[in-house]
Design brief:
binds flavin-adenine dinucleotide, single chain, 8-stranded mixed sheet, FAD/NAD(P)-binding domain, alpha/beta
């Protein structure tokens, strides 16, 4: 049987290993994880809130990898600062229990790691290599099939064929308000980029903040004192979500699009952020990465690794084409359209948001794409 290596023990690499081993426990699989065996580094790691779709929730729940204490979204309010047009999406319109869930990166990373720890107990040919950073040169020696799941953040990765710098960075953290916003997500577009307020695990009066702006503005905002920061945030967002009283755990990320055209080359395959890093405007990066991982696990297990791995990888690339292209294009469109200052574009945006509110089937199909991807 061919040996498979996964490079990168982030959420996507771990999920891929879990799904492969769950389907075919005797697969010879090596996982190269940069982190030590202890889970402490993950628990104390990145606390940024991530919107996880109902589709990803169901995939992870099936392998017992769903983190406890992840608030759900029942209603999303989309608006554009200073312009007409708004859209509201409710879970009832989609016939779903939730439109999405908010989890902390650290929590979902840990829960998938713990699921793999459980699943791999009965997998004699699985080897988990801790404290391993695999360099370019080592890769070819590793195994017969290499799955790249090294992930990464925009501007910290090598440039790929599809690249766009939006000249934006995001402040993430949490804010406390004087109003409860239970199960409510707010997405407000501004000329500088989107400003999202999402449910937070700390309680209903807390919200996760993702505030996009030009990089110098982001840095200037981070340098403000607490009162000035809250005042500026209130001016940008308005008062719909209540009065902002406190903010915490603030830090910034550069945003952009960096994606590979081909996700299979010979016996190498790329999944998750190693295949595509996107703007978080539509909350799709991890969701798309988990769909990559799940489809790849099915392609590898389903076709039989002994028979023809090249065929399995080509099949995987074909299966992922539509979902990848649609999600990347939709995210890129949303990241650019709302920052345009051209008058016709502004007008079209307002009409589009208002129409979206009225054209229920269009709204449903767009929301379904974001929740479940193209199948
Ligand atoms: C501000 C912000 C908000 C976001 N919000 C959302 C959201 O709401 N919804 C959503 O779906 N997505 C969101 N994302 C995107 C999401 O965080 C990523 O898509 C997701 O983390 C990708 O997971 P991954 O496992 O592919 O990569 P990563 O999370 O980057 O993990 C990769 C792992 O591989 C390891 N590694 C790297 N190189 C090597 C090597 N050479 N050898 C061994 N190991 C290596 C790394 O140490 C890391 O542990 C957001 C991103 C940002 C920046």
């Amino acid at each position: 049987m061919k040996r498979i290596a996964i490079i990168g023990g982030g959420p996507v690499g771990l999920a891929c290993a879990s799904w492969i081993l769950e389907k075919t426990p005797d697969t010879p699989l090596d996982l190269y994880d940069r982190l030590p065996e202890s889970n402490d580094a993950i628990t104390q790691g990145d606390s940024r809130g991530i919107a996880v779709s109902q589709g990803s929730h169901l995939l992870l729940k099936n392998i017992g990898a769903w983190p406890a204490n992840s608030p759900t979204i029942h209603k999303i309010h989309v608006s554009h600062r200073g312009h007409f047009g708004r859209a509201i999406v409710r879970r009832e319109e989609l016939g779903q229990d939730a439109l999405g869930h908010i989890v902390r990166y650290a929590d979902i990373h840990l829960s998938i790691r713990q699921a793999l720890q459980r699943i791999s107990k009965n997998c004699p040919q699985f080897h988990w290599h801790f404290n391993q950073k695999i360099d370019e040169l080592d890769k070819t020696q590793l195994a017969d099939v290499i799955i790249h799941a090294e992930g990464g953040l925009f501007k910290q990765q090598e440039w790929q064929e599809i690249y766009r710098d939006y000249d934006q960075s995001a402040i993430v953290g949490w804010v406390r308000t004087d109003k409860t916003n239970q199960h409510l997500a707010w997405e407000r577009f501004t000329e500088e980029g989107p400003l999202a307020l999402l449910p937070n695990h700390k309680g209903h009066e807390y919200l996760n903040l993702v505030w996009c702006g030009h990089p110098p503005t982001t840095q200037a905002r981070l340098a403000l004192g607490p009162d000035d920061f809250l005042r500026e945030l209130q001016t940008s967002f308005g008062t719909r979500a209540g009065r902002f009283l406190e903010a915490g755990e603030l830090r910034s990320y550069d945003l952009g699009l960096n994606a590979r055209k081909e996700i299979v080359k010979g016996r190498e395959v790329w999944i998750g952020n190693a295949a595509q890093t996107m703007h978080p405007v539509a909350g799709q990066g991890l969701n798309l990465g988990l769909r990559d991982a799940h489809t790849l696990a099915e392609a590898i297990s389903g076709l039989g690794i002994n028979r023809n791995i090249t065929e399995a990888l080509e099949h995987y690339q074909t299966l992922r084409k539509t979902d990848r292209n649609t999600t990347i294009a939709t995210t890129d469109f949303l990241a650019r359209i709302f920052t345009s200052s051209s008058k016709p574009v502004i007008c079209a945006r307002g009409i589009a948001l208002s129409s979206l509110q009225l054209l229920v089937p269009v709204k449903q199909s767009l929301t379904r794409q974001m929740m479940f991807g193209q199948r």
